[in-house]
Design a protein that fits this description.
CATH topology of the largest domain: Ribosomal Protein S5, domain 2
Shape: elongated
CATH architecture of the largest domain: 2-Layer Sandwich
CATH superfamily of the largest domain: Impact, N-terminal domain
Number of helices: 5
Number of domains: 2
Largest sheet: 5 strands, antiparallel
CATH class of the largest domain: Alpha Beta
Order of helices and strands: EEEHEEHEHEHEEHE
Distance between the termini: 17 Å
Radius of gyration: 23 Å
Length: 207
Amino acid sequence: MQSYKTIRKAASAEFVEKHSRFIGYIAPVTTAEEANEFIASIKSKHWDATHNVPAYILRQDNAKRYSDDGEPQGTAGVPVLSVLEKAELVDCVCVVTRYFGGTLLGTGGLVRAYSHGASIAVEAGGIVTRAICKKLSVTCDYGFYGKLSPMILEAGGVIEDTLFEDSVTVLFRLSSSVADTFNAKLIDASNGRYAVTVNGEEFTDID
């Protein structure tokens, strides 16, 4: 997997439907243990709620889990999971809490309510794309430095640090998918004087 979408930050949002209060919670996680800890924390916080409906999707082992937590089968957990799937999210967990308000919503109403609870939680948390990026550096003279920075930015790179000494060293990250193309352009633009040094690789936010 060269890139994936996940939740930027833990967040929550709520709404009321026919006197029932729904609170959607979402958070980024990377393991089933982290997901289950988050679910447990919400259940502990809302121990008096009528339902706490969880769902999560992980990159690890392509794991997907959900529960209706006492709601009629297929009306709660599946809709929450479907919101995550349609947004193509992984490494995140969502819990939609419901305080029953005395009015039955019916099967269709429950599906819509739990879907909406998950959707507003996703919106509150924000979606971020993470891709494998190479951690790169280029050391050049001061004359070429004026060309180098615009080249990095034009390629979608993010400059993390610049060291000004006898020469200039620019430390930056760049999507792995364009790193080779960037290096070829750099070699060509500098008439073979400069090339990138690869210092590592990691998943990082690219938007």
